[in-house]
Design a protein that fits this description.
10 strands, about 230 residues, alpha+beta, about 35% helix, 3-stranded antiparallel sheet, Muramoyl-pentapeptide Carboxypeptidase, domain 2
Amino acid sequence: MRLLLVCLLVCAAAVVGVWRGWIDVPAQWNPWAPLDVRLKPNVLTPFKLARLQNDLTLCDQALASSSLRFSRQADSDPSARCPLQNTLRIQGGDIALSSSFLASCPLAVAYAMFDIHTVQPAAQAVFGQRVARIDHLGSFACRNVYNRANSRLSQHATANALDIAGFRLADGQRINLLKDWSDEGDKGRFLRLIRDGACKHFSTVLGPEYNAAHRDHFHVDMGRWQVCR
């Protein structure tokens, strides 16, 4: 018992030392350091992402480390059925988009990490070239889950979710979830690498193997539940 107490006190002292800046640790292992999307994700990344929603300074610092082009959106009326706060319109970046989309700060930053650490490495590994564009089905929609009257609000209702439908390579080749998920060659392999990698960046990832409603897209969101299907 005494040894356990000593260990707890030492750990607490270390945490306080890191927080106050008395102990120097690499930024990626400092829970209070700004998130840098260029660094490989680790066990602290979900905590850092969660802090972005209500901290504009941390949000701006994380976005500054990305290549995203975006504009800030005015907060909506708090009395709205689906009020939006600290929301961004993502217009593109290292990868072009089929259209811009609204995103919470955690979703935007997770998307930037997804691009750097999953999408481009998977494309290089399978096709030997980069992804030039992502095709999506949208993000914000003020609705319940599956549009059911008695369901809870969807993560889409807070711009905290994105539906990704396909990818276009630098040479113009297209990979589409609806057509290519069952492909036994490179396209199918690529999409599975994307799904598995997305689970490292987003809280929830739902694809064609989840149910028929997701047969044509990956639903990714930053909700509280950890699901990878």
